[in-house]
Design goal:
Low-confidence stretches: 1-15
Number of helices: 3
Structural class: alpha+beta
Number of strands: 8
Strand content: 35-45%
Strand order of the largest sheet: 4-1-8-7
């Protein structure tokens, strides 16, 4: 009986570890002619801090999304509480989850291997 329990445990464990993962990464390049302050809420489920605050110089690139998921659909993998705030010169711009996903739809996307999806956001409309 014990041998069967061990085999069952190994089968279940093997099934859990063999589940494929998808990685979603989005980088934002500051195309503004001035530095911007970036705050990304719930930007990652694997890196800390989970709220990103950073001043981004002209031309600098910053990661604004980093998610590992067992689901291969971006919309289902990013939490509803995701938000990207861009502030500069007393003005601000905010993208909630639907606005951010729409921005990704207009951005360069590449697939690396079978499981990594990467976007590069380069849009002067994001200059506040």
């Amino acid at each position: 009986m014990t041998k069967h329990l061990v085999l069952l445990f190994l089968f279940v464990l093997g099934g859990c570890t063999a589940q494929s993962k998808t990685v979603f990464i989005a980088d934002l390049e500051n195309l503004c002619s001035y530095p911007v302050d970036i705050t990304a809420y719930e930007y990652s489920n694997a890196k800390e801090p989970f709220v990103l605050n950073k001043r981004v110089a002209v031309g600098e690139v910053i990661e604004v999304l980093s998610y590992i998921s067992f689901n291969d659909e971006l919309e289902n993998s990013v939490p509803d509480t995701y938000r990207l705030d861009i502030t500069a010169n007393g003005n601000s711009l905010s993208l909630d989850k639907p606005g951010f996903l729409a921005q990704l739809g207009r951005s360069h996307h590449e697939r690396r291997g079978n499981s990594i999806h990467a976007w590069k956001i380069r849009d002067t409309a994001l200059c506040p």
